[in-house]
Structure prediction request, 223 residues.
Amino acid sequence: MEPVATSPADTGPVAARPVTAPGPPTGSGRAVLIADTALALLAERGMRGLTHRAVDEAAGLPPGSTSNHARTRLALLEAANERLATREARALAVTELPDPAGGPDAVADALAPVLHRYLTGHRELLVCRYELALEATRRPELRHRYDEAGRRFREPLLALVTALGSPDPRRHTLSLIAWSEGMMFACVAGSHHAQVPTLDQLRDGLRELLTGMVGTGAPDDRR
Prediction:
C-alpha cells in the first residue's frame, strides 16, 4: 500500500496517494496523514488490518510515529472516526441543505445529487463507517464519539424536515435517515452493491418519501 497524502480540501475517496513532500509531515499535518491512512487501511483491510505499525508503514512514517500520536488502539479509532466525520461532511455538503420553501420536490431535487455523488465517488468512506459502526457496538467509548459525529448530520436534517412542515419532525427525520442509510448500505455492502441507482431513481424515491411525510407543495401552501 502506498503512502497517503492529504490536504484540507481533500474530499475524494479514501485512496492511496504518493507522498510528494520531501519529508514526513509534522504537527497537524502528521495527524491528518495518520487519520487518513487509518481510513485507507480500514477500507482496504478491515478492522483487523488497522494497527499502529501498519499505519506507519503505509504512511511512510518512522516506526513509532502513530503510537506517539495515538497511544492506544482506541485513540487511533477515535482519530479515524473524527477524520471520517470531517470528510463525510464535505462530501455530503451538510452545510448546504436546500431551501425547504420549495416543498418536497425541491428538497428531493437537491438531496438526490448529494446521495448519488456519495454513492459513486466516496464508497470507501462508507466502508470505513460500517467498520467503525460495528466496532462501536463493542466499545462504549467509541460509541459516544461515533454518535456525536452522527449528531452533526442529524440536526441539520431535523431542522430541514421541521421547516418542510412535518407534523412529527423527529420521527420523519429518523425515516429519512433510515431510507438514506439503507440505500447506501444496500448499494455499497449489500445485495445491490453491483449497481448504483440512477440520479432520477434516487430523486423519485426521495420525493415519494418526503411527500408521504408532509404532502405536496410548499409549506406555506399547506397551511
Observations:
- Residues 116 and 199 are 6 Å apart (CA to CA).
- The two ends are 58 Å apart (CA to CA).
- Residues 140-163 form the longest helix (24 residues).
- Residues 1-22 have pLDDT under 50 and may be disordered.
